[in-house]
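## retry 2 of 3
previous attempt timed out at serialization; input unchanged, resubmitting
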Amino acid sequence: MAKKTETTVEEKLRALFDLQLIDSRIDEIRNVRGELPLEVEDLEDEVAGMNTRMEKLKSDLEVIETSIKDKKNLIEEAKSLIKKYTAQQDNVRNNREYNSLSKEIEFQELEIQLAEKHIKEFKAQIEQKNVVIDETKERLKARQDHLKHKQGELNEILSETEKEEKSLLKESEKYEKNIEERLVKAYKRIRSNVKNGLAVVQVERGASGGSFFTIPPQVQMEIASRKKIITDEHSGRILVDPELATEEREKMGKIFAKMK
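## retry succeeded, writing output
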């Protein structure tokens, strides 16, 4: 049985840099989407809230309309009773009966006045509600248009990048499996601790990529020899030499092009 060849440090560095390039491309795609998904979600919640408000306003209007109907019925009943009591006054036997009917008529007249006052108040409420409904309709239309626009933007970005992102995520998982677990854990830890997600960087102008701290010439030579994994003492990032970085960028660039 053939002995399994051990992965060299150079192969590990290349695999880690490739993984970094894949994950950076995923980051890039997600950055293009930016806050759009959250923005769309917030707008959807806002539109749903405004629709609920509209339903509540319409429901309130129906309640007020029913109250007006009830008051109008009460007025008709009161008028009918006044007519009845007035007719009865023509057939009274004494002043006591007449005064009693007069009081009933007076009470029904007051009921009519009160009902008419309530109807007037209800109609004023309807006017106010209709103003609020019109304003809410305008705002709702504006938010719906904005939501439609943002959803269009998001759908366009998703249609352009979703397929590529899925392919990249699969590729990322595949590359992770080919790197020893210890290194993958270190890579992920560094990646989560740096703002731009760059855990593996090349040496640029004698410094760690994106850093101003100069790397001593001796250390630069060690990085270029690819004999051991070296990290930047300031940021903790894994360092690779520019030549290796260029070679891997070209290789991965071809792979990325096929995913689009």
